[in-house]
Every structure is written in structure tokens, then in C-alpha cells.
Design brief:
56% helix, three-stranded antiparallel β-sheet, elongated
């Protein structure tokens, strides 16, 4: 345990006690702040050698990375509030002389953050291909597609080009080729695996044609589903599920990231799963243990 980690852990414990005893914060708020601040520690300790060396730049960089994952505005605001309150407490306790988070503000881009579904809305939407009446003859494909969108945070451009040879379902992973032909391995939960297998061993066999290649998701003509087709299907099932929010396939990507981060998942692991561009430019992302990534997904993803 390095100096900052030890120092931070003790300070965090004192802060949480302060919230309980002197500020009378709810248990839910304390748990959320605890998750937010522990993730913050894991990030800043990579470049700050001691509590006193944490600067506004470190904090702004961390907030920028949170924003890049698509974390919703409400959660962004809470993360900033947690960091501000924590550093303010350290000044009150004379652990620090100044508060590096004193002037911290939400990134300007935060106003453009896309819609994020709640867990309840997400699970309701995922059930719609099965529960809708009349049931579509393509329900197994559509169910597998929605489950995979939520399970992996995959981009729609990556989804349409996903091939069966890149499924490692027995190991619980999918190999995804992202922007710039960069590839990543992303964990997949049991529900998505089940429905992908149901679709592959049933409906897909009846859809496949000689020119279907190895693409996973096919249309009625045996061609790979287009981006527009997937967009239309998501809109269709959202309407059937009674979801009034304006959503698209990309909504699943931001929902995936938000639900993991809200559950306390490590920011680096979530970025690795998203295939965010900063992973390519920051070498530390290239050495994350796959077993750790899979454990993060299993522990914090609602469908893990």
C-alpha cells in the first residue's frame, strides 16, 4: 500500500464518520460518496505522490474521464460534490492547507450528455421482445441484440460488424473491433450468453444464406443488420416498453457505463470495456488484467 493510498483511506474513513455523525447524511449518500471517492483515489494516486500534491489539474482530469464514459449529469454532479466536500473536510481538519477542488465545476459538455436509462427501465426494455403481443418471429435475435448492447456497451457500428468467430462465450468474453481497428475483450453476462446461443442455434440458421459471411446479426435476407435497422428496433421496443425517453442504440452504451460506475466499478476497468480512445494513448490501460476486468463486470453490472 503506497503512501497516498494509506493516507487517503484513513482520511476517507474520517470523512465518512464526519458525514454520519456531524452532517447526518443518509446511508445511501454515504455509500455513494464512498464509491465515488474510492474510485477517485485509484485515479489520482497514479500521478500524485501524496495527498498534498493533488492539484486542481488532477481532479479536472479525473472528471473529464468520468464525462468521457458518458456518466449522466446527476451522477457527475454528485461525484464533484463528493470531491469538493472531501477536500473541504481535509482543510477543516488541517490535513491540507488549501482545497484543490474549491473552484471545480461541471465540464461544459455535461449539458450535452445523452439520456441514460434506469436499471428498472433497462430490464423492462430487455424483456419486451419476449413479452410483447404479438411476439415478433425475430424475437430471439432482437432479444440477443438488446442484451448484448447492454452487457458490453458496444457501439452500433461495432455491433453490425460483429462476427461469430469473435464470440468466446464459454470464457464469457466478446472480442470487439472498435475505432481505428483497435480491439478489446469485453465480458458478457449469463443472460446475454444464453440468448446469443438461443439465436445462433435457432433463428439464425433459418436466416443464413450463402453470402451471409460470419456476421452474427442477420436480417430476413441473410445480410448483416444495418445501423438504421438496429436503431429502428431499439425505438420499436422502447415504445412497446412504455419508455418515453428519446433513446437510441448509443443509449445502451452510456447506460452500461453509468450502471457500472454507479455500482462502484473502477473507472479504468470501465474505460477498458468501452474501448475509449484514452485507453489507446495511455499505456497503463494496456496492462489491465483480464480476470480483473471480468470480475468488475460480474460484480457491478446489473446483468452480470
Amino acid at each position: 500500500m503506497n503512501t497516498l493510498h494509506s493516507q487517503f483511506s484513513k482520511a476517507l474513513e474520517n470523512f465518512l464518520n464526519y458525514m454520519l455523525i456531524e452532517r447526518n447524511f443518509s446511508q445511501n449518500t454515504r455509500e455513494a460518496y464512498n464509491n465515488d471517492l474510492r474510485r477517485y483515489l485509484l485515479y489520482v494516486q497514479e500521478s500524485a505522490r501524496a495527498m498534498e500534491s493533488i492539484t486542481a489539474h488532477h481532479i479536472e482530469e479525473f472528471i473529464g474521464e468520468l464525462y468521457a464514459t458518458g456518466l449522466e449529469a446527476r451522477s457527475m454532479a454528485r461525484n464533484i460534490s463528493a470531491i469538493r466536500s472531501f477536500h473541504k473536510f481535509l482543510v477543516i481538519e488541517r490535513t491540507l492547507d488549501t482545497n484543490p477542488a474549491d473552484t471545480l465545476r461541471l465540464p461544459k459538455q455535461a449539458r450535452y450528455l445523452p439520456t441514460v436509462l434506469t436499471v428498472e427501465e433497462t430490464l423492462r426494455l430487455l424483456e419486451t421482445p419476449i413479452s410483447s403481443v404479438p411476439q415478433s418471429k425475430y424475437y430471439a435475435r432482437d432479444k440477443a441484440m438488446l442484451e448484448l448492447l447492454y452487457a458490453t456497451g458496444i457501439r452500433v457500428s461495432e455491433l453490425v460488424n460483429l462476427q461469430q468467430q469473435n464470440l468466446y462465450l464459454e470464457a464469457g468474453f466478446v472480442r470487439i473491433y472498435g475505432k481505428g481497428s483497435k480491439e478489446r475483450l469485453v465480458p458478457v453476462g449469463d443472460s446475454a450468453i444464453h440468448w446469443i446461443n438461443q439465436y445462433r442455434t435457432g433463428l439464425r440458421l433459418s436466416l443464413v444464406k450463402s453470402n451471409s459471411d460470419d456476421y452474427l446479426f442477420l436480417n430476413s435476407r441473410g445480410k448483416k443488420l444495418s445501423r438504421m435497422a438496429i436503431y429502428s428496433l431499439v425505438q420499436h421496443y422502447a415504445k412497446l416498453a412504455g419508455i418515453e425517453k428519446n433513446i437510441s442504440p448509443h443509449t445502451f452504451r452510456h447506460t452500461f457505463a453509468t450502471h457500472l460506475l454507479e455500482g462502484g466499478a473502477d473507472l479504468r476497468a470501465v474505460q477498458e470495456m468501452l474501448g475509449h480512445s484514452s485507453i489507446v494513448t495511455t499505456q497503463i490501460y494496456m496492462h489491465i488484467d483480464r480476470s480483473f476486468i471480468k470480475e468488475v463486470h460480474k460484480t457491478f453490472h446489473p446483468r452480470g
